[in-house]
Design brief:
The complex is a heterodimer of chains A (198) and B (210). Chain A folds into two domains: 126 residues, no CATH class; 43 residues. In chain A, 44% of the residues lie in helices and 18% in strands. Chain A is built from seven helices and five strands. In chain A, strands 1-2-4-3 form a four-stranded antiparallel β-sheet. In chain A, a hairpin with a 2-residue loop joins strand 1 and strand 2. Chain B has two domains: 130 residues, no CATH class; 42 residues. Chain B starts with a strand and ends in a 22-residue tail after the last helix. In chain B, strands 1, 2, 3, 4 and 5 form a five-stranded antiparallel β-sheet that branches. In chain B, strand 1 and strand 2 form a beta hairpin. Chain B is α+β, with helices and mostly antiparallel strands and 210 residues long. The chains are: A alpha+beta (198), B alpha+beta (210). Chains A and B meet through strand 1, strand 2, helix 1, strand 3 and strand 4 of A and strand 2, helix 1, strand 3, strand 4 and strand 5 of B. Strand 3 of chain A pairs antiparallel with strand 6 of chain B.
Chain lengths: 198, 210
């Protein structure tokens, strides 16, 4: 079992919801998906590489026959999968501090959700509904979400400069190069192995 | 479509695991045992097959009881959860997995109900789609870059930092020549392998944590 690979942590959580409440939650996710400013806090946190919520209605668990017994459930379920940088405690703390309103709108429809603030019962709840990852792969274990964003900025700046470089005089190139250095200087952080977390 | 965010596809699959009292060890345990020995770096099946940014495999034993006054209920099957963040269209991605690492797919999913094997590519794709869940909300920090583009950009970032450090104060004509050579070398360099830890650093600050 490993929830961690390099700089990434895999969180899985499942929570039960009364079926009528899933309609409300779907409505919230529809708005969140279509009104981009509502995602701004999620984007600004900048340590989540990918995350998803899946509403799984009680009668829509995959059923393939072949001797499989059909599920008979009272609750719909909300599945949450997150890929984030840092430790579990840092993640839940930041979620609680920055996204408490948004998280409440997502999980308040789940049974026994205590709210994202105060953080202690919130952590207890997440720990209770979390299940561990058996296998975790990332194509770039040495990079965090900010490294990815920065690397693409550096690549775009370099591509732009190299396109112009050949047509420049040495003096013009020196000016363009200086502007390039100013553009990328904040995006050259070293990637590598994750620090040891105690 | 909620399964996609930009050009990145969020695949969620729940495959019911065979429940056979005669099997020793049980099928879910056999999956876990296999996953525990599967490489996670450059030799990972997801590194050998094209298009995976991040992926996880999880045996979900049951739903979770959160306590009174909620009702306690249990699943009749255990499920193998496959969560992947991948490039492009689903059919191409699944076909790439089936073509590149069929032996791993068979070793894992042969413990699941109705799995047809990866040799028959269309049957494999149809099976995976039968087990697929629609994502309700999908977030991707970078949603318009493929795996090779990202690996290339990380390589560029590293190389640019070194180039800038090594060429401070150089006179313009020579700097221009050196830059042209640098860009040409970078373009001809192979894309780093997915799952690798990148170039080793001279400064050590720690190790992979667990």
């Amino acid at each position: 079992m490993s929830n961690i690979n390099g700089k990434i942590y895999a969180l899985n959580a499942i929570t039960p919801m009364k079926p009528w409440k899933t309609l409300v939650l779907r409505g919230f996710f529809f708005l969140l998906g279509h009104i981009k400013p509502l995602q701004q806090d999620l984007i600004n946190l900048s340590f989540i590489e990918f995350a998803r919520w899946v509403v799984l209605p009680r009668r829509q668990f995959p059923f393939l026959g072949n001797g499989q017994v059909k599920e008979e459930l009272q609750y719909d379920y909300l599945l949450f999968f997150s890929n984030f940088n840092g430790t579990w405690n840092q993640y839940i703390d930041a979620f609680s501090a920055v996204l408490s309103k948004g998280l409440n709108l997502v999980w308040r429809w789940s049974e026994k959700f205590p709210g994202a603030v105060p953080v202690t019962p919130f952590k207890e709840y997440i720990a209770r509904v979390q299940f561990d990852t058996d296998y975790y792969y990332t194509a770039y274990p040495h990079a965090a979400a900010n490294d990815l964003k920065s690397a693409h900025i550096v690549q775009a700046s370099l591509d732009s400069l190299s396109q112009r470089a050949q047509a420049c005089t040495p003096e013009q190139f020196a000016d363009a190069y200086l502007r390039f250095v100013l553009e990328v200087q904040a995006h050259l952080g070293e990637t590598g192995e994750a620090p040891i977390v105690f | 479509m909620p399964n996609k965010n930009g050009t990145v596809y969020g695949l969620t699959i729940l495959s019911p695991i065979i429940d056979d009292e005669q099997a020793t060890p049980s099928h879910d345990l056999q999956i876990r045992k296999y996953l525990a020995t599967l490489p996670t770096g450059e030799q990972s099946p997801f590194a050998l097959a094209p298009g995976t940014h991040l992926a996880r495999l999880v045996v979900m034993d049951d739903v979770i009881y959160v306590g009174m006054p909620a009702c306690e209920e249990h699943l009749k099957s255990k499920y193998l959860v496959f969560e992947s963040n991948c490039d492009g269209e689903l059919d191409n991605y699944l076909a790439g997995l089936a073509a590149s690492v069929p032996e791993h797919l068979d070793a894992i999913w042969s413990h699941c109900v109705g799995y047809p094997g990866a040799a028959n590519q269309q049957a494999f794709i149809d099976y995976m789609k039968a087990c697929q869940l629609e994502t309700t909300f999908y977030f991707a920090a970078v949603n318009d870059k493929s795996v090779p583009e990202t690996l290339r950009a990380l390589q560029t970032q590293h190389a640019v930092a070194d180039f800038i450090a090594d060429h401070q104060g150089m006179e313009p004509a020579r700097l221009q020549t050196e830059f042209a050579r640098f860009v040409a070398e970078l373009k001809s360099a192979p894309v780093p392998r997915p799952g690798s830890m990148g170039q080793p650093r001279s400064i050590k600050t720690g190790g992979r944590n667990e």
